[in-house]
Amino acid sequence: MFESTKAILPELILVITTFYLTLRSASGRAKRGSLYIEALIGAICALVCLFLFSEKYYGFKAFYSTIELDKTAFFFRMIFISLAIFVIVMTAKSTEISDYLFGENLVLVFSITTGMCFVASSIDLLMIYFSLEWISLSSYLLTGFIAHKRSSSEAGMKYTLFGGIASAVMLFGMSWLFGVTGTLKLDEIPAAFAASHSIMMMFSLVLILVGFAFKVAAVPLHFWVPDVYQAASTPITTLFSIGPKAAGFAVLIRVFYYSFYNSEETALLMESLKPGLEIVFQFFAAFTMTAGNLLALRQENIKRMLAYSSISHAGFLLMGVAAMSDKGIQALYFYIFIYLLMNGGAFFVVNLIINRWGAENISDYEGLGWRGGSQSMIAVAMSVFLFSLAGLPPFGGFIGKWFIFAAAVEKHMYALVVVGLVNIVIALYYYARILRAMYLVQTVSPRTEIRLKINEGFFMGALSLSLIYYGIFFPPFMGYLKTIIP
Amino acid sequence: MTSLLSENPNSYLIISVLIFSAGMFTVLTRKNILAIIMGIELMLNASALNFITFSFFRKSTLYSGHVFAILIIVLAAAEAVVALAILLAIFQQRKSVMTDDISDMKG
Amino acid sequence: MDQVAQYIWIIPAAPLAGFIINGLISFSWGAKSSDFHKKVSTIVSPLVILISFLVTLAVFIQMVQNPETNRIFSQNLYSWIKTGFIEANVNLVLDPLSIILVLIITGVGFFIHLYSVGYMDHDRSIIRYFAYLNLFTFAMLILVLGDNILLMFVGWEGVGLCSYLLIGFWYQNRNYAIAGMKAFLVNRVGDFAFIIGFFMLFWGIYHYEGVPTIAFSALKDVMGKMPEWYLTIVTLMFFIGATGKSAQIPLYIWLPDAMAGPTPVSALIHAATMVTAGVYMIARMSFLFIATPMTLTVISIIAAGTAFFAATIGIVQNDIKKVLAYSTVSQLGYMFLGMGTGVFTTGIFHLMTHAFFKGLLFLGAGSVILASHHEQDILLMGGLRKKIPITFITFLIGTLAIAGIPGLSGFFSKDEILWQTYITPNVYIPQLPHILWIIGLATAGITSFYMFRLLFLTFFGEFRGDEGALEEVHESPFIMTIPLMVLAVLSIFGGYIGMPEALGGSNHLHHWLSPVLSMKEAVEEHGAGHFQEYLFMGFSILVSLSGAALAYIFYILKPSIPKSIGSKISGLHQLVFNKYYIDELYHATFIKGTLGLRMLLNKFDQKIIDAFVNFVAVIVKAVSRVHGFFDRVVVDGLVNFVAAFTQYYSSVMQTWQSGMLNRYLYYILGSFIMAYVILRII
Q1: Which tens digits make up the pLDDT trace of C249-258?
Q2: Of B36, C76, C509, C545, whose CB is crowded by the most CB atoms within 10 A?
Q3: Nearest C-alpha in A relative to C676
């Protein structure tokens, strides 16, 4: 009878760790180091459990069929928990997070991770709304809970109001969808659909899309992104730039592709919706990548620049959705995974610089490549991450973009492909600005020398090597991703 | 019980649309953050009313609409808590709760 | 599939391993490398090539035993690129065509590696040298073994890179480094055409045949619906690629300068293997070329022109390696002439024999250079035959072979080309075969003349160098003379596998290759039996002998003649001596032109673009005054219009990012309404 509970063992461990850390930090005497180790143990346990026990539950629908723990869910949960571990490591010595907030910070990281895991496996509108709100509330707090920092509360407030409105709109859409079909289960919706309701259906789907677009930060629902990314501490920015975005895509694909597009009984539904949906996604993709890139072009603050660049990456991912084919989705999954590596790596370096120098402007990176020792290694790793973000071979980012473009070409979305290509060129320009600062400027202002710790060097090296690895030996992983699409 | 309610759901739906529009209007026009939060609450409640209405008139045996409505109330409360907590911090810093005054970050 | 096929991967892998080992040693120790490192390098490097050669030989033996229909061995290593459109595997194929090339690359390559051990003995960068040489062998093998155009292109670029690295091997000398750069740049022109050809071919196959593939084996079967005009453009593009790599008009100018590299490199890369890549490429894609008579005609004309043109320059060169370089260009012209007839075996045959005798000649030249302490000017040599007898004899054999003296390999292959040129009718210009034949024959005479000139000036007569320098001339060590002897043997007997039937041979090579090449049926019978063929053979023997005799008269009997002739036609002499001023011409046109264009663009940038940008800026400022909204728009310091454009929109977007929550909401609502309206309209 506890089959459902057993199935979500990794999430359960995350929740238990959340409560444990809440109590520990509430006592006020917990040491930062011990909290860090405990959190790390909890997250690693969750990841291990995920790998050990999830295969048994493929296809199992838990909790009155509100969540399904299939292969896609496994893939995303793996990404989210790994991301949590990565973020916990980044927070360990972060100077932006003071000791007395450290415990709460970890609690919220765990909370948001749990929420994201549930989002990736939800197959019921109620569960989708619930877990999306779970993520949102945790992220509002993570942004705004540094009460003494002006920018933190400002960004947190905007994030809250924005998120609140977006989710209220989404909820309204869900209520209409429920009214039209009489069910909350994603797999029952297509069968309950009748042609006479297609306008109402489209209306409610667009409203729901607003909520998802807010989560993936698609234009024009992106206004919160730069403020939040800039105001949050860098490890949390890393989390935001990858986690909720990936979760948003997971649920977007589950609703719009897996349920509505991909099964036999949906022919009637798709016939009336397909042209509209494809155009909507194409519009989203084109505007998102262009606006993100244009805004990133003139930024001085590197976190803000990476925030805008993450918007443009969401645009490329939306291109994969717009293709509405197995290939597009497969490419999108690959891109998300690579994005975890490359964006994580870039933010890791940014975090390192902020912690050691307290500097977060592009001009602070001047001459980094010429300072020698650890700093040169950091510059090399950063170059790998930036090249990959820009989509240059032989790095993983190139392969991701390549496959997404291939999927779009296959669907004859030539206009979108042209927009995408132009955007790659624009993106190259602002990534090159950092490279220019690191290598072409040789006037080095005096700063304290950065010495890399072993674990930091390990993370940077592992991330850049795996980017190269996946840039060359991608076929096995690509083949695996093909199998996770039902 | 049923006799107290009218035979078709239209009046409930019209009311919910009105409530949602009112919430949207509030959100768009007011600059006081407290008012915006209230607008969001209105929008959420419109959805809750919708869920109850559909659940009732479709005679859903699982009562999923009812459950959803209760969940909305819970989450709305949680969201209000978070929003007000952050608003409190803002008020302490800037002595203002207007959106115009929280526009430090731009560009 | 035969057992041996699963070992094909060793063939390229061994040189790669050699490169990695040498590269690591060179990278780790560099200039500090000890004698031990050097020893490791000099053993490992030839050894890996030997391993490749032995594996190839094993496959070859198996292949000979197999029936004709079962002579294609392939091994799929790795699925490289796989999307809906394109599927490229790292698939290595040994078929009767590629195995000939591989045997040359590894066999001749092995001996050249061995020779290099002696030749480069005193160079302190010998480990780096061997690393490059191994890498080159690897890239060349990939080029030959790859079963699809993409993989071939990887090898194509790889050999180009190694060629660049090895030409500029002594990069401390500025001129040598420039020579490397020149080779690299000129090759880029060809490669660009190659890529265009590749993309066009791929698009054409996708469009006309509907079967997207780039594997040679599959391509062969799907061709058919592509219109001829399209195919002609594709093949011409590929041929332009070949003119770059294989040094044909107009892109041959890099090869003579490439002699800046160490001599064994010239022998391996710029005579035996890399420069023949273009010929191989045409043979590999014979099914494309055979369908386009227009391209074949163009190839023939360019090839004959190159052969003649380069041979005339060879007459007046005084640098021993430069003579051989122009001779290589000329002989490559011969190969393409053979390809242009459509009977592709002739070109491959000449490719093979040329690899033997030109490799031999270069190695011999290297031995001479080393013996006379890095003197390369043949006017300062003479009478060396007694001092370095082994080098002399082998060099003599090489000269006889290239000059087309009957009985040696060069005679058979060259004669085969001339004969096929003559008898293959041309659909566009009926007289063309005869003209080409005459040019080819004349070239044979000139070849004979300049080669014997080289031989006589170097080895006969009186020594013309500094006093006492002759005493120091010494024969090269064993490790260098053994390759000479082996190649000399091959130069003599290498021709017999392609001996024409008219001479009682059975033309093994032709029968060996014909299953894998799509080509015209070689016209064996032409009127009255083999009579005409004998007659033509007689012609070419006569021409070769008279070339040799003329050289004998000029440089042994009456050494005063060349000078007097030179002074009588000094204008022509100057023209030829300066290589027809082609380099100067290119410099004056393309390089100056490019630089000029750059200046022009610069001007354009400064004047037009600036004005335009300023204009835009003025307009924008005016607009911004009206709206009071674009205050933050900054359009300064940007000369690039596109950048200005993007930057401008970037700043507009930034003004939208105003930090005002209510505005954001209006933007969102507005954009949704706009999107709705737009969707309604379309």
Answers
A1: 888 888 888 8
A2: B36
A3: A280
